[in-house]
Amino acid sequence: MTPMTTEQVAEFLGVKVERVKRLARENLLVAKDQDPQGQPIFDKSDVEKYKELAQRLGGI
């Protein structure tokens, strides 16, 4: 697992941090863990799969 912070995911997807948090809340992007501040940590491969799927469906 290659961990990514919320900020890293937002940059990778080209969206705002709030959008990543919403995706996690709605279980569209599943967090694997939490950092000491309670922020979600995502697996890079899951984020890449989400981006590919979102692009196929018309965008993020």
From TrEMBL:
Domain Helix-turn-helix stretches: 4-52
InterPro entries tied to this protein: DNA-bd_dom_put_sf (IPR009061), HTH_17 (IPR041657)
Origin superkingdom: Bacteria
Name of the protein this chain belongs to: Helix-turn-helix domain-containing protein
